[in-house]
Amino acid sequence: MYPANHLIRRGFSLLEVLITVVIMGISGALIVPHLADRGGLEVQAAVQQLVSDVSWAQCDAVASQQYRRLHFYADGRGWCLIDVTDSSFADPFDEATAQYSDDPWKTRRGGGDFIVDFVADERFTEVAVSAVSVASGGRDVTFDRLGGTVSAPGLGAGAVSIELSDGDVIWRVNLAPVTGRMSVEKVS
C-alpha cells in the first residue's frame, strides 16, 4: 500500500523535543516573573484609583459649588469622600456621622456612600495607604468651590502627599499647595 521508501512517522525526534523544551523554558523564564509580581500591579491600580478620586472630588466641588473632603483612614485601609459645609468645616471626622458624598458609579463601591476600602475590595488586598502628609496636619484634603485645596474657608492649604504601598513598592501622589495640581512618583 505504501511505497517501500516511505516511512510512517509516529513521534517526535529527540531534537524536536529538545527545541520545544528550550523554547518553553525561555518563555516561562520571561513570563512567570511578570505574573508573580501582582502586588506591583495592585498598588499601581490603587494609585490610579486615588488620582481618579482626587480629580472627581475637585470636579464635584466645582460643579456643586460646595466643599468636598477626602478623608484617609488612620488604619491605612483607604479613603472616603465627604460633603462639608462652612458650619461643619472644622468638625473632626466621625465615621458614624460623616455626610458621605454619593457614589456616582453605584457599582464600583457597591452603591451609596463614596468609600474606598482596600480590605473589602479583593482587587487591593495587599495595598494600604502607608502615609498621609498634610501641611495643616490631620488626614483630610478639602477642595473648595474652585477645586483648590483649603485648610479653612477662604484659606489656601499647603502641600499634601499620600503614599500607597504593597509592602515592596511605594507610590506617592502629591498635591500642590492651593491649586491641588497632582503629580505621581514612584518612591521605591
Write a structural description.
This protein is α+β, with helices and mostly antiparallel strands. The chain is elongated, with a radius of gyration of 26 Å. It starts with 13 loop residues before the first helix and ends with a strand. The relative contact order is 0.16. The mean pLDDT is 87.
Question: Topology of this structure?
Answer:
Blueprint: H1 14-36, H2 38-64, E1 67-72, E2 78-84, E3 115-117, E4 128-134, E5 140-143, E6 149-152, E7 155-156, E8 160-165, E9 170-175, E10 182-186
> What's the name of the CATH homologous superfamily?
minor pseudopilin epsh domain
Q: Tell how many strands the DSSP assignment holds.
A: 10
Helix content percent band: 25-40%
Model regions low in confidence, pLDDT < 50 over at least 5 residues: none
CATH fold annotation: minor pseudopilin epsh fold
The span between the termini is 71 Å
| Order of helical and strand elements | HHEEEEEEEEEE
Helix tally equals 2
Mean pLDDT: 87
Largest sheet: 6 strands, antiparallel
**Count of spatially separate domains:** 1
Q: By helix and strand content, what is the structural category?
A: alpha+beta
Strand content of the residues, in percent? 25-35%
Radius of gyration, taken over Cα atoms and rounded to an integer in Å? 26 Å
- Overall shape: elongated
| Name of the level-1 CATH class | Alpha Beta
Give the spatial strand order of the biggest sheet.
3-2-1-5-6-7
By CATH, the architecture is named: 3-Layer(bab) Sandwich
